[in-house]
Design goal:
- By secondary structure, this protein is mainly β.
- It has a domain at about 5-130.
- About 10% of the residues lie in helices and about 30% in strands.
- It contains 2 helices and 8 strands, in the order ββββββαββα.
- Strands 2, 3, 4, 5, 6 and 7 form a 6-stranded mixed β-sheet that branches.
- It is elongated, with a radius of gyration of 30 Å.
Length: about 200
């Protein structure tokens, strides 16, 4: 698969360039990570200061998710912002990354390296998009989920189950006899026959 997110360093200038791309899930190898419904829209600003290259932008996609409450599939828009700072591989070091992270005021940048005359954005943009997928997707914030008895989707209306107060796993306890002498009094039952 051709990586269309590689940029030739010679094309990167000091003046900011705005780049817009429309790519597919195959271009980001998203087959196993997410089920996309359409193209991926990518827009970013690209410029350089000396040997440092700055890339700031946003990636958007519409995906199909499964609600964790009612298990229905639904369409949802996803977007992720990213800020990348690339330096030559021979100059890249963890100390530099830590120092420059402290200097960042707005958005924490991700520091990467480049070599071979090209800057590869593939991994960072793919990671940003995957991290934007919610861990517990909901078809709507107030989704009532499924009936715990029959499994009906409650968002479509009340089911035929007995959902009155007290109906459930502990409803059988209502029919147990309770002695007024022992209930909450902490005293022994005086009906027990005592031996002489």
């Amino acid at each position: 698969m051709k990586n269309i997110l590689k940029i030739n360093l010679d094309s990167i200038r000091e003046d900011p360039q705005i780049v817009s791309q429309e790519i597919s899930g195959l271009d980001l190898d998203l087959d196993e990570a997410v089920s996309e419904k359409g193209p991926i829209f990518l827009k970013y600003t690209l410029y350089r200061i000396g040997e440092k290259i700055y890339v700031q932008g946003r990636v958007k996609i519409e995906v199909k998710l499964t609600c964790v409450r009612c298990l229905i599939e639904f369409d949802a828009p996803l977007q992720a912002d990213f800020l990348l700072v690339a330096v030559p591989a021979e100059q890249y070091s963890p100390d530099q990354k830590e120092q420059e992270s402290r200097e960042s005021r707005k958005q924490d940048p991700v520091f990467i390296s480049y070599s071979g005359g090209q800057l590869d954005l593939f991994q960072e943009i793919r990671s940003a998009l995957i991290l934007a997928i919610p861990m517990k997707p909901l078809c709507r914030e107030d989704c009532p989920g499924l009936c715990h008895q029959c499994g009906a989707r409650l968002a479509e209306g009340a089911c035929a189950c007995n959902r009155k107060k007290g109906a459930g796993s502990f409803a059988v306890l209502e029919n147990l006899p309770v002695s007024e002498k022992t209930c909450g009094s902490g005293e022994a039952d005086t009906d027990v026959k005592q031996e002489d």
